[in-house]
Amino acid sequence: MTTSGQLRNPGSTNTVKPIFTHLHQRRRVAAALLLTGLLAGCGFKLRGSQTYAFSSIAITPFPGEAVAQELRRSFGSAVRVLDKDTPLAQAQVVLAMQGEQREKVVVGVNASGQVRELQLRIRVKFRLTTPQGQELVAADEILQQRDISYTESAALAKETEEAQLYRDMQADIVQQMLRRLATVKLPPSP
Question: In the chain, where are the structural domains located?
Answer without folding.
Answer: 56-182
